[in-house]
Amino acid sequence: MSASSAGTVPGGTAPPALQGATLVMLTIVISLATFMEVLDMTIVNVSIPAIAGTLAVSPTEGTWAISSYTLAAAIMQPLTGWLGRRFGEVRTFTVSGTLFVVFSALCGLSNSMTMLVVGRILQGLVSGPMVPMAQALLLRNYPPQRRAIAMSIWGMVVFIAPICGPVLGGWITDNLSWPWLFFINVPVGLFAIGVSAMLLRGRETTRTPARVDAIGLLLLIAGVGALQFMLDRGNELDWFESTIIRVAAIIAVVALSLLIAWELTDRHPILDLHLFKHRNFTVGLICLCVGFFCFFGAVVAYPLWLQTTVGYTAEWAGLATAPVGILGILLMPVVGANIRRLNPRVLASMGFLVLSFVMYWAGSLNAHGDFWSYVEPRLLQGVGLACFFLPLQQIMFSDVKPNEFAAASGLSSFLRSIAGSTSTALSVWLWTERTDYHAATLAAGIQSGGAWLDWSARFNAAGGDGALLPYTFFQITREAQTLAINDLMRVFSVILLLLAPVIWLSRPARGGAPVAGGH
User: Fold this and answer.
1) Architecture of the domain defined by 1-210
2) pTM to 2 decimal places
3) Which of 506, 313, 276, 491 lies closest to 392 in space, CA to CA?
């Protein structure tokens, strides 16, 4: 059964691929629904102080509005394959999208932190299958020879939406109010899901009865829940110095280890780990997750540095980061249109090399640059992304069977989410640790020899008026934070450089291997 033949029409024949304006409209509305869901991963980040103040909780408690959504979505993503088989992919997508709109409205109406967290959990639970299911629906309804273009569009949406989140979130919070972070989903979601349902009428995939893996689901909830808690609270509680973090780590390791063993033997696993028998899927997914780890770590840490060190507002920090999508949006369709004639391993290697160079470039900036000096590396980063995401998708799914596609898409989305959560925690931790190290080194240096006397004399001669110590502390902290972000970017640069040869462990997928895994 081919990727495009899973759906049936009266008479038992496969519906033909969509063409023309209908295909364009389907691409727009499914991309819009995907953008809406992925955007909600980061749109709340810069608004936590406003949310916490309104609901009378601490900013630390306010971060549960982020982690509760991420955790719920991560748990549901591996269920994508089972949901698609049991209820049909079109129905799963439209019901998930409709409930996402309902629970978004509930979040906007929240008058307590408890109500908001419950709303975010429900929102995350129904959003989990949306992105992988959107990918599956695009592939099923595109002509085989144009599926790479569909993936280029989908891939750009997945990567750009998290970057736009802080910009849009900051603007909405400053000019409207934080509930509109959620209310904005209502008209957008109703339009996208309504039009999708209309265009996909009569194109439902074949439904097959399948039991849910209850034990696997419980182990998944326990393992991912403990892991997410550890990552969310680790920096605040000083990691393994805290008993509760150590307990969470033990639960995560035990539950996830048991999950792996159980899923390899269960007849209807939530996580189809047998997909890793496909060499290209394994190599491609490893490179995708590690590359996303570096990309997302920079997306989190770079705007944070711009706000805390350079003095940018959340909105301007987002604007300095967002240009990563400009060249990517222009180039991805070009790459997609020509991917069947190109070697995906060469393109992926080029993408890793460009991204490595950009990270190294970003690791040489300082806190005194102008706006364009921060934007320029992000523009070039779009070139790397265009050569990174789509070729990896081509490699990953080149040896996956069509009837395994929804499960493979759900598994890759799940592991990409885990990579993003891990990257967020480790990037902030590494930046903090290196800031402390550089601050101590700079403080020791300025106290050595006659450096302090020279510094004091120059400060007083400039009319410092006795504010020497606070000013010195400010300058040391600012420089230490800058050196720390440079260290972080160079770590990402090295990791991306090492990925360039790793992708060559995959088998050749040249000659137009279908992105969906076959036709």
Assistant:
1) Up-down Bundle (1.20)
2) 0.79
3) 506
